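Batch job 17 of 40 flagged for manual review because the log was empty.
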Amino acid sequence: MQSVNSSSQAHGVTNTLLPTEPLPDTTSVPPRAYSRSPSPGQGNYSPFEAPLEEPPKDRKTFPAYGGQGKHITRKNWLRFFTGWAVHFPALASTIAILFISQQDRYWYSEEGVSLHVGSSNITLNADTINNLLQLPAKIHELLIIASLSSIVLAMFRRSLILDGVRLGFLTGGYRVGDLTYLGTSAFWRQGLNTRKPWEFLLAGFVVFATLISTIIGPASAVLLVPTLGWYSLDQATDFQKIKPLLFYALDPESVTPSFLQEDASPLHGKATCKSFAGFYVYGCPAAGFSDIWSWAQSFRAGDLGDKPSFHYPPTELRRELVFANSSDSSSSSPAKASIILSTTPPHFLMVSLGLFSDYMASPEMVKTLGGESYRIKTSYQQEEHKIFQPFVQSKCRTFKKPKAADLGPTDLELPIKSFHCFEDENCLSFHGKSHFANKKTMTWLDDEALEGRPVSDKFRTVGENSSILLLLGQLPEDDAVLLYACGFMTSWVLSNFTFDPKDTDILKSSFSDQVSLNGTFNLTDFFKDPTQRAQPITFDRTVLDYLVPSFDMDDDEDGSNHHYSALGRITKLFTEACESPKSSGLPCVSPVDTNDELATNIFLSKVFGVYLTEVLSRTSSAYFTYLKTTIPGKNLTLRNLSKQYGRSITHTEFNFHNATHFNDTRRNKLVNPDNAYSAIQFTMDRYGYGSGHSRPTLDFALSTMYIYLGVVGIYAAIIGTRHLVSFFIVEGEKPHVRVLSIIPWSDLQDLIVLALKSSPPLVKEFKGAGTGLRNAKHWNLIVKVMADKNQNLTLAVGDSDFHKKNEMDEVDYEGRFSYS
C-alpha cells in the first residue's frame, strides 16, 4: 500500500481514495456475519445455505474507516409504512379526480366566472380557467410517476442485494419515463434468464411504467379540464325541487283522446270550428290551414319535399311536420306499395314549452339564474307523465277514366288493408279483404255539373265510427278524369321531446327523422315493450266536420252559391287551365305526370296525410298553461303563462292552499292540478363547461387511471401477503418471500457514490471499456451489492468478483449488521 502511494506521489498525483495511514489489524475485527461463499463453478446458489453467526451486540462502528455504520434494511415498524408515503398522495388525488370527472356537474358558463373582490369585479374567461386547471393536472401526473417509480425502485433495490441485476439495467430502476433508455442497446442486450422470471418482470414493469407515465399527463388533463356541453340544473333550483313543473289545463284523456266525438273534450263547445271560423281560430283543429296551404302552394318548386313548420306567434319555438315514404311489404305491385307516414309534436306542447322559454328569458329569471341557455327534455319513461304525438299512415290510389260516370265496380280499390293496425280490431277487420269505390261512395259521379271539375270530399268513417278514415275525390285532366281514393290509419305514439336553443328553434321529437318513422311502422326498434304501444284513434262520424271545415259563399259576379272546404281549397292548388281545346277554360290537374301512377299516389298521400296529421296535433289546443313555482316570501304559486307571455300581458297567479291544492278564485274552489290537469314533466340542462359527459377521450383517460389503481392494488396485495407470511418464517430463511424495506440507493447519486468507492471489477469484459463497452453482449453481466471482509459495501460484477474467496460476502438483509 505504501509503495503505491509513493509511486503516486512520484508522478505528482495524490490518491485520495486510498487511506494514508496503515489499516488497523484486521484480527481485531469480529467474525463476519456470513461465513459462506459460493464454491468455484457453482452457478446457482442460495444466499442462506449456511447458518448465521450472531454478531457482538455492542458492534456499532467499523475500524475500516472509523465512521458510523448504517443498516441496509429497516427492522422496526417503519418498514410497514415508509414505502407507502409516496403512494398516498397519488392514490388520493387519482380517486378524487375519478370521482369529479364522472359527476355530471355544471362548473361555469361559456363566458367564464365573475369574482367579486372588494368593490371590483374580476372576470376569468373560460380559456384562462382551463389553462389554470392544467397545473393540478401536471401535479397529478408527477405524483403518479413518482408512485410508479417508487414501485420500480423497490423491486430494483431488492434485486440488487439478493440475486443482482443485469449491467444493462443498473440504472433502469431510476429511468421510469425515459423513452430514450428503452431504445438503447443496454436495455435490449441485457439478456434474460428464463429460469429467473423476476428479471423479465422487472424489465417489463419498467416498460409498462414508462408508457403509463407518457400518457398519464394528457389523461389527467382530460379528466380535470371541463368540456363544453349541456349539464343538469343544480338541485337547489325550483325546477329540480318541484315536480311536475308545468301543467296544461286539460285532463290527460282529453289531451290525446282515443275516441274523438263532438260532445266530449277536447271538441265539446267548439261548434264554430266546423265553419269559416275553423280556418283561423286558434283553438280549432284546422287552424293550421294557412300554413298547410302555403306549403302545398310551393309544390312546383320543391315537389313538396320540404317539411312544413308551425309556430305560435307570441313565442319563438317552432315544430316541424315530418313525413316519410314507407314500403308495404304485403303488396307485390310497386304502384300499390307506397304508404306515407306523417307525424309532428302536439301543438299544445309546443305552445307550453314556448311560453316557458319566454319565461326563462324574462329579466326576472335572467337575474336569478344568470341568463345561460337552457335545454328542455321530456321523457316517456315516467308512466304518469307520458306525452303522445299523432302518427298517421296515409295511402292513395288513382284510376283514370274518360268520364267519372264510367267507373266500374272494381276499378278503384280502397287502400285500407295494408296499414299497421297496432292491434286495433276495427283496422284488422279490413285486412285480407278488398273494398272498392263505387257510385254509392262517390255520390257525385252522375252529377253532370261536376264533370270536368275538381271534387274534394271530406274525411269519412267506415260506419258510424271507425279507426280507418276514407277520402274520395276527383281531379280533371285533358279529355279524362283522375279519380282517387285515400285511406288513413291514425294513432297516438309515445315520444320524447327536446328543445335545444343552441342548435335550433325547432321542438324535436323521437320521430324527427325518416329512420325512426320507418322503425315505428316496421316495428324494428319501437314498441317492443307492450306498455309503449301506439294508441289507435277512433273517430265518431260527428267530428268529421271539425276536421275539414267548410262554408258557402255567394259569388258577387253571377250570384251563384259556391261551397268552400279546407281540402277543396288545397286540391284546387294542383289545377291549372287545361290545354285541350275541348276542355279550354276548365281546370286540369298539374302537380305530377298522372301517367306515373306511383308518383301520383305518393303525391296525394303526402298532401292529405300531412293535412290530417296537423289537424290531429291541434285537437286539444287553446287551453291555459300553468307554471308551478315559488316566489320569495310566499308559498307555492301557480302562474298562468298563457296570459302573461301569450296573447295577453295579464299577470294571473293562484296561491296554493296546501301542498297539493291551489285556490282557483275564478270558480271559487280548491283544485288539485295533479288530478285535473295534464302534467308536462321535463328536465332542464344549461349550456356551459362541466364534467361527466361520456366521450372516447374520457373513456381512455378513465381506463388509464383504473390501470394505475389496479397496479398499485395488486402491488399492495402482494406486499401485504408477504408481510403476513413473514410472521410465520424463521428469521434468516426464504429471503425472496420477505418484504425488504431497503434504506439506501433511493437516488441514482447514491448508487454512483457506491460505484466510485467500490474496487475495480476483475472481469475481463471491462478491459478498455472506459469509453464504452466494446461488445453489447457484455450488458448481460450480473451486478450485485456485496460486502468485503471489513463490512464495506461494494458493487461486484460477474463471477470473478462473486467468487473472491474470503473477501466478498452477501449483505445482511435482516437489518442486524451495519455497513459502510
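Reviewer: the log was empty due to a logging misconfiguration, but the result itself is present. The chain has 23 helices and 36 strands. Unflagging and moving on to job 18.
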